[in-house]
Structure formats: structure tokens, C-alpha cells
Amino acid sequence: MKARTLKDVVVQKSKHKSGRIIILSGARQTGKTTLARLSFPEYKYLSIEDPITREPFTRLSADQWAIQYPKAILDEVQKEPVLIESIKSAYDQFETPKYILLGSSQFLLLQQVKESLAGRCTIYDLMPLTLPEIMTNEWDTSVQESMFRKLISGESLTELLPSFLLYPTHAAAIQAFSHYLNFGGYPAVADESLSDDDRREWLYNYIRTYLERDIRDLADFRSLDPFVKTQKTTALLTGSLVNFSQLAREADIAANTARRFLNYLELSYQVILLQPWAKNNLKRLTKTPKLHYLDPGIQRGILRKQGELTGNEFESAVIAEIYKQTRFPGFTGNLYHLKTADGREIDLLIELENGYIAVEIKMTQRVRSEDARHLNGLETLLDKPLIHSFVLSNDMDVKMLSKSITAMPAVMFLT
């Protein structure tokens, strides 16, 4: 079983008065239930997913919750909104009850929380496994910080750059990265006893369950066919700028329907829309976002694809991993892509309090100087200092392309 970085954060939070209600949100099968049950074995586990078994809980008063379930884990709590009201009442009337609420619908859960639990809870998103988590073997193992996480925490690049080939975890990192690119980061497919065919079968079943259950929580579909077409089209377009007219045309739906379906995919933790950077914050809202699937295994499963990744798929996989590694408490920055009128494109611009880190992503085995051409002079466009720029690729050599641009293996940056 893989260790989770969020585990210690959640346990420590639960010891404080502000941690009496903790919400773990995230896609189905990211490990929310496992994390909650292993971290809080003294809590009673209540599954709210089955409409038959959840009905008795809806009749409990605040007093009954406090007496019968003073500490409880409520799984898929967004399926029964009245329970959130009950938890609120128990919280307000008694000082001792503690609850862990689990949910797989960002929209439904957060809408209910906003209405009922505002100011009473702490919310954490549990993403699929990060690469450092994939590299662990035991639940109680410490998860090592990646080079990226160390960089955004303020550590010096020169101290982090000894040859990756000499790292004691080099072989494990390469293996984890290969697994991630092919099968993604869901805990179930990280089981080392599974064959590759078993992993693909799990991914296909996951996608089927997502269509049959999760997406129907967000909307009442007369037919799923248009959404399935949209899902497949977005999987093909990962790593591309969002063009709603093209998406609508490819999926044979109206443009406003394409927008709605893409919103569903985002709210259910399937895709991320990387917003464009601009000096003017208002302009960022009017420019075109870039679409990235949050998990390469799911993206490939939707397409029933095996074999080599495309350049766009590799870019999406790297950006999704960076995104996951910024979802832990303490990161206050923002992620953008950049595209200028004169054709300059930067795959990822990471905004920190003290400046920016720019990232170009290439699937090449051999980085050349021209791969960094869009990074040259980038500092003249920005409203904060450019801390450093990176070209991430499959080239195993670390190269200083200039004083401010370093090329390194993507796997080294992410582990």
C-alpha cells in the first residue's frame, strides 16, 4: 500500500479545534476511504452511497449523532445533503463530535458545504498518487519531497543538481515515471501484483463506473452518448488550447453544451483547465485556457490506447503531476500557460510570491538550445522576477542552457 503525503497533515489538523470537521474531496478511487479509515481507526465508518443503508441516518437528530456517532467517517456524503445539515447541528450544539466527510463530486459537495458548513470545516483535495508516493511501498513510509517541491519551498537549485544518475533512488524513479505515463496514478493500478492487462481492465472499468454513477450526480442525462463523445474528444485534445467550436463540432453538440460538459469533467476531477497568464487579471478571464487530463492512465483508457505517448500527452502528464504536487497545504501560488500575440508559448508558468518559475516540456531524448527559444527574454514580459526556467524532457543529462535556463530530465524534477 502506498503512503500519502496528506495523511500526516489531516491527522495533525484533527487534533485542533478547527479540525472537528474535515472534508476529503477527490475523484472516485483516489484513496479517500483508505486514508480516512487507516488514519482514524477509532472513527465509525458510515457509507452513504447505498440509498437503502443511508436512509436511517437521515432520521437522526443532532443529539443522536453526538451520542451514537461522536466520531464518524461519512463516505460519499454529497449523496444525501440532509446529513450535512445534521452534522452542522451536532457541531453547533456539542463541543466534542468529530467528523470526516468524504465526497467525489467537487460541485455537489462544495455547494453543500458553502451553504451549511462555511467556517466550520477544513477541506482537502486528495489527488491520484504523486510520483514520490508511487515510489513508496508501505503506508507508514515517509514520502520524500520532490526536487520541484524543494524548489518552490525556497531551496537552492545548485544544491539540488548533483547528477540524477547518482541518486540512490534513480532506478525506482525511472520505473515509477514509466508506470505513471502508461497507467497513471490511481492507487489500484499501483498494485505490483497486477499485470499490465489487469491495470488496463481496471481503468476501463473505472471509466465505465464514472459514466454510470459519478457523472449522473452532476446532471440528468437523457442519453450519455453526447457526453461520451465529448469525453473521447477531450482525451484526444489533451495538451491543446480549448476551442469550444472545434470540441462541439467533433462531438456533434452545441457549443454551449460543450462548455457545460467540459465543466462537468473539471468538477469531477477528470481534467484541469490551465488558465492563460496576462499582466492584467481581467484579461486572464477572457483568454483561452489549455486542457490537460489529470491522469494519463484515464486519458489513455478513454481512448483504449497503448504504446508511445504523443508530445501533447507527455506535456499533460508532466503538468498534471506538477499540479498534484501543488495541491498540498502551504502552496499559495498559481499555475498558468502563456501565449503571446507574436507566437511565444510557455507550457507552464508557476507564480510564487517572490516571482515565477517557467517550464517548457519536450518529449525529446536530446534537448537542444532551440528547445529553450521561447524562454529567452521571458523576464521582460513578466510583472515579477523570473526565478528560473526549466526545459523538462526525457534527456537524462542536466544542461545549463544559459545562466537562467536549466534542462533536466522530467523524472528528476518530479521525484
UniProtKB/TrEMBL annotation:
Protein name as it appears in the record: ATP-binding protein
Domain AAA: 20-134
Family matches, as InterPro entries: AAA_14, DUF4143, P-loop_NTPase
Domain DUF4143: 212-363
